[in-house]
Design goal:
Number of strands: 8
Shape: globular
Structural class: alpha/beta
Largest sheet: 6 strands, mixed
Strand content: 5-15%
Order of helices and strands: HHEEEEEHEEEHHHHHHHH
Distance between the termini: 54 Å
Radius of gyration: 20 Å
Amino acid sequence: MENINTTTAQRYVDILTNGGFKALFGDINNKDVVMSILNVLLPEHRRLADIEYLPTERQGTLLDINKDYQYDFMCRDLSGAVFIVELQRYREVHWFKRCVSYACRAYDRQNRKGEEYDIPPVYLIGLMDVEVEHPDKEYWKERYVSEYTFREKTCYDLLEETIVIIFAEMANFHKRLEDCESETDKMLYVLKNIGKMMNQPEWLQHEVYSRIFQACEIVGFPEDKRIEYEQEMYDERRRRGEINAARLDGFDEGHKEGLVEGEAKGRAEGLAEGSDSAKRDIVLSMISKGLSVEQIAEFTGIDIESVKQIVS
């Protein structure tokens, strides 16, 4: 049987929360764990032997529009290739274009160091807790890792390795542990479910998974890390409550009823169908509560430029 916790105190962080993600990926002591996770998702020729952690906050180029931007996690391997990890928990308008923009900025930034365009590739790995809207849904029904890059249209030639975007699609991953045969399946299972587990399952008694469980065990955190994690989780729960309240304030009674009943799809549809004035009210309410433009875009699905126009 699967060891899913529904009633007792949480033992391991939920990696698919901002606090849990930061506790795992943001701690340099977990470097081996991070490499193990990425190596399951990366192509074989890009398996990591060592990484250097990179600053996640970068100065933007359009200073009057976007002064800075922040990655969730960024590192570089021994060859110079850059790896970005982004956690996606909420629906967002034009989210794929944002991923391309993030990867392109990291790629272009490396070009400034030389003049011969011999630029190491950039990989952006998205941990997707929302559905990827594939045009061919039937093809992707039992596939959970997708990869996008520059290839020739008819024969798929790859002239150079430049920008690669990989999505680990946890939102559509519903396998039970006993049905996970490949290492990819097992890793996706852990990434999605570890926050609900009370012990490391016997089927996952392997050094790689033991290190993941050890790195995610809350009681093992140093005091300063535990305090930071608890604050992150408190802030995240507070923001979620404020956002839900703002949504309720901005929708008509029909949309409110859908939200109260917990219809997840109704939230996205309600926001999409809401009037411009309702969206404006929601955005301004969130701004008044101290949320940033980026946070508002992430939680509501309204694109960043539209949020900026409302608050300007």
